Amino acid sequence: QLIVALGAAALGLPLTAYAQAKVWRLGYLDFGSRKTMVDSGRHAALIEGLRERGYVEGKNWVFEARFADGNADRLHGLAAELVQQKADVILSSGTVASHAAQRAATTIPIVVTNVGDPVKEGLAASLARPGGNVTGMSSATGDTVQKLVELLIVAAPRLKRIAVLNNPTVSTQATLLPRVQAAAKQAGKTVLPLGVHTLEEIERAFTTMARERADAVIIFADAFFLQHRARIAALALQHRLPSIYPQAQYAEAGGLMSYGADLNDNFRRAGIFVEKILKGAKPGELPFEQPTRFYLVINRKTANALGVKLNNELLTRAERVIE
Fold first, then answer.
1. Which helix (H) or strand (E) holds 280?
2. DSSP label of 123
3. Which of 24, 28, 54, 266 is 20 to 30 A removed from 323 (C-alpha atoms)?
4. Which of these, 54, 63, 70, 99, lies nearest to 202 by C-alpha position?
5. Cα–Cα separations (whole angstroms), residue 5 to 11, 22, 210, 258
6. Are 189 and 161 in contact (CB under 8 A)?
7. What pLDDT is attached to residue 281?
8. Average pLDDT score, the chain
9. Across the beta sheet with 61-67, what order do the strands follow?
10. How far apart are CA 9 and CA 14, in angstroms?
11. SS3 90
12. d(Cα 51, Cα 66) in Å, to the nearest integer?
């Protein structure tokens, strides 16, 4: 090794050119599907973020990805598979998958790519010092739900009743609903909460919205909803309901508007956490990151189909308008 080092120094070459690099095994656990991860751009963002840190797939790391395809009951077994594969780091997406990874991998470092509130979800003791083996990034959805109400009212000033599609199996969503109700009440609007966690229940919920005369709909952040974003957007359009979502992928799938953090950027930044951990950092000592910017995306085609007039207030706020 000394001879190799001296030879490398003489030639001005990095030692890594001669050393046999370790091939790291990165696990990934997702409630949704592989197709959703690819189509949303998250897979590409993750690969790019790792490449920026010098990690090239197939060269110095391999990907062990597991997808539950919308079936939460599969997550525990899939997480156990990643443990058996001896993953060096496990990345997880969303609350349900992150809990499954946390239960199965008690010593393997876990990097969460998005979760509403890691402290309230029991994934971290605090944002600054998570403790345990979990760190990562928050989507800070609790900070944006009131804004969803405000933007809907700007888009449809005459609306009186706002439906809210939420997943009762995700505990933090129960804390978001009162914030929406408070914001709606302040504006003189009422709220129709609808808890769903199957595709059939989503279909029935939109029938209920029509029967109960809802004028618009808010969709809470949820991995299950993201999996069915195209169907949800189509149902909102079919029932002529202006809709707003927490992620841009919904607007790209035909929803009227989205407002929230850029979660693809979270996947890109996951590479920073992975690099620190592989170099010896303890996940419990790496602070959870929170987004600093939130983006409004508007689908003009959907707005035209609904007869929603995009006034200057909305257009000037929009980061992107989908034509």
1. none
2. S
3. 266
4. 70
5. 10, 18, 73, 54
6. yes
7. 97
8. 90
9. 61-67, 24-30, 89-93, 110-112, 134-136
10. 8
11. strand
12. 21
